[in-house]
Design a protein that fits this description.
By secondary structure, this protein is α/β, with parallel strands linked by helices. The protein is built from 21 helices and 16 strands. The N and C termini lie far apart (75 Å).
Length: 476
């Protein structure tokens, strides 16, 4: 028989759950204070604990930690009011399996939640989740931070709360939002994405809320807005930090009341759309700069998910490469070990999006009879920044050797019987300019026995320019 622990200082709550659960053939113990709770978990092994978040002599987070230290396999559900939902999400990060909101108005949903955590098979469910994530391109892999993120995302997906995703450009915020939508109860409803920074304010208002016929010049017919189309589904607002203050006011109204007006309309319309917003900005800083509304941030930031940059999940680089090769119908290709080593040393400023572009580029350059992608097919910037650019060995004292290698490298690109990206050529030209200038600076500095003022005078540049050149073009 499964044993359930109820921790709530309200006796009525304990009696309610005792009646509800004992009818299901479950054994129930009730604690009303921290001492009772500590005693019970030291004497009895529980399958599930329901813990109130706000208590007179303690708090749910503290008791959750006590439970997990004593009984790691016991599942935990936090009970909370709406005003403390954000704290309940913090409990999920500390090991809680779920949370339920007081008062318990929807008893059917409450029973479904309890039954799920009493009967669920974690391993099978996790495998199913991982398969769905992979299918959507949400690579979880071995990275600890990504695994914690995925677990939290899955837990909150089934809650009707708004989510804010933060992360650098190209980290995969839309992919994460799509994953959340697909593991939520709204999975069979629309998932719609809109970039708040890519559409002018006047058009964005019409896109979001729709417009009536004749509302403005060019409005020749009625148009439904995204909030109407995505009703009961999920709306992904990408680059929310780029939205104008006017749009922010209207978004706030929708988030607070679920109500909006079409442009040019007079009747109030209702929507049950879930909002997932994303940004690569620091919105707290934007609030300080008066470019983002604090009340809107409060409404969006119920749950915040931070996507780590690709450089912090290098251990899963091969998983991304295999996924992208499959995506471009090139599963028969593979990257050489040398290629992998070079890419692991690269910082990936463009993150996952940049990696995908590099995969597409390499596949496009490959001949039909080739199956291994070698460093030859990587862009110049990766070869250079990784410190592994075999074609251009450079010695400070041997400008002639460098020019010879550079010329041979350019001619090789010229003679290659396949398309060459102009960016690669121009990058090599910039490298030539940099290295030649550096050689002349170092030669002059050597002639003047390290005297920077005399070196600058001889080169007809200022000491400040010399300092810049030395800093930019290498160490002396």
């Amino acid at each position: 028989m499964k044993h359930i622990l109820i921790m709530d200082d309200e006796i009525e709550v304990g009696n309610f759950f005792r009646h509800l659960l004992e009818e299901k053939g479950l054994q129930v113990s009730v604690a009303t204070n921290k001492n009772d709770f500590s005693t019970l978990i030291s004497e009895i092994t529980f399958d599930l604990a329901l813990i109130d978040l706000k208590l007179p002599d303690s708090n749910g987070i503290e008791l959750l930690k006590l439970l997990k230290n004593s009984q790691q396999t016991c599942k935990a559900i936090i009970m909370t009011g709406y005003s403390t939902v954000k704290t309940a999400v913090e409990a999920l990060k500390n090991g809680a399996n779920d949370y339920i909101e007081k008062p318990f108005d929807d008893l059917d949903q409450l029973e479904k939640t309890l039954d799920k955590h009493l009967n669920i098979e974690p391993i099978a469910n996790q495998e199913e989740t991982n398969q769905l994530a992979s299918k959507l391109g949400f690579i979880i892999g071995q990275n600890k931070e990504m695994n914690e993120l995925a677990k939290l995302a899955e837990k909150i997906a089934k809650k009707n709360i708004n989510i804010l995703i933060e992360g650098e450009t190209g980290t995969g915020k839309e992919v994460l939002a799509n994953f959340i939508h697909n593991v939520s109860l709204r999975y069979n409803q629309p998932f719609i994405r809109i970039n708040c920074g890519a559409i002018p304010e006047t058009l964005l208002e019409s896109e979001l809320f729709g417009h009536e016929k004749g509302a403005f010049t060019g409005a020749v017919k009625l148009k439904k807005g995204i909030f109407e189309i995505a009703n009961n589904g999920t709306l992904f607002l990408d680059e929310i930090g780029e939205a104008s203050l006017g749009i922010q006011v209207q978004l706030l109204r929708v988030l607070e009341t679920g109500e909006y007006y079409r442009v040019g309309g007079e009747s109030v319309r209702k929507t049950n759309t879930r909002i997932i917003a994303a940004t690569n900005r620091d919105l707290a800083k934007s609030v300080e700069e008066k470019t983002f509304r604090e009340d809107l941030l409060y409404r969006l930031d119920v749950v915040k998910l931070n996507l780590p940059p690709l450089r912090k999940r290098r251990e899963d680089l091969e998983l991304y490469l295999k996924f992208f090769l499959k995506k471009v119908n090139a599963s028969h290709l593979s990257f050489s070990q040398e290629c992998l080593d070079i890419m692991r040393n690269y910082e990936w400023p463009g993150n996952v999006r940049e990696l995908f572009n590099i995969v597409k580029r390499a596949v496009a350059l490959m001949d039909e009879d080739e199956s291994i992608i070698t460093p030859t097919f990587l862009p110049e910037k990766i070869l250079h920044n990784s410190g592994q650019q075999p074609e251009l060995q450079y010695s400070e004292d041997d400008l002639e050797s460098y020019l010879s290698n550079w010329t041979r490298h350019i001619l090789t690109m010229w003679d290659r019987n396949k398309d060459i990206q102009l960016d690669d050529v121009l990058y090599s030209v910039k490298e030539l300019e940099k290295q030649v200038g550096r050689s002349f600076v170092l030669k002059s500095l050597k002639n003047h026995v390290g005297d920077r003022k005399k070196t600058a005078d001889s080169l007809k540049i200022t000491p400040r320019q010399l300092k810049y050149l030395l800093n930019e073009k290498g160490k002396v």
